[in-house]
């Protein structure tokens, strides 16, 4: 474990390459310390010029993308028109900082969804939400336009999402009747495979920087992979990411799912099959349920004793309710 003082010194040496010799690091401070990534903010000073930067670092694992893949994916998305932070340097080797790392520009704005929602409480709130929702659809369409055929990113993978989440639940050797019904329905009603695109993997409110009513940047690319556009579309629209907003604002708490889909169709030049999207909504909700159960498992097994993880685990029943409602919607 590298302490803050040593990290400051090592980071200055790393930044000498992209910013120039004599770069110093000031005001290094930890922002978050999650299970897989730690985020730091700091100022890089070169020749009297100060630049606000972000460092993300953490040990490699079998779930999250490597830092070099994150950097590649963001560059590919940026080239297609998506708003992402500019990355200065990324390295999967632990040699320089003790863990793989990524350094990017700091983007001003808000990520806490409750604060974003309060911004829209005024008279023009509906118009502001609609504008932000269109920008989210535009950004997602740009991500899905990214060129993944010219040069594949380092470690970019593709996996059957239904199989993956079935396996993750089975590993815990614990399930519910609703989960099993959901998996059975998904297996029996799988839609035709659509075109393969770059998938963000966690495109949702909370992973977006919003400046007023404007989308400033898409963050948190550690789940990036190759797959179907429906995965990102559905994940943005599950109830968990409305953060308490009513069902009428089903797309990220900003507007209706239909409005979001129409905006995406216009931005992408594609047609979204509504029945296929519903299938992916069921899978996305089931995915969140499995994640909730996994977080509870981390607490219950003593892997990471945490009230927060235990509380997330109690939300399994919420996802069961959502799955039942989604399946009820398509009954003959």
UniProtKB/TrEMBL annotation:
Keywords: Kinase, Transferase. GO terms for molecular function: kinase activity. InterPro entries: ACAD10_11_N (IPR041726), AGP_Transferase (IPR051678), Aminoglycoside_PTrfase (IPR002575), Kinase-like_dom_sf (IPR011009). Signal peptide: none annotated. The keyword Membrane does not apply. It comes from Mycobacterium numidiamassiliense. This is Predicted kinase, aminoglycoside phosphotransferase (APT) family. Residues 28-267 form the Aminoglycoside phosphotransferase domain.
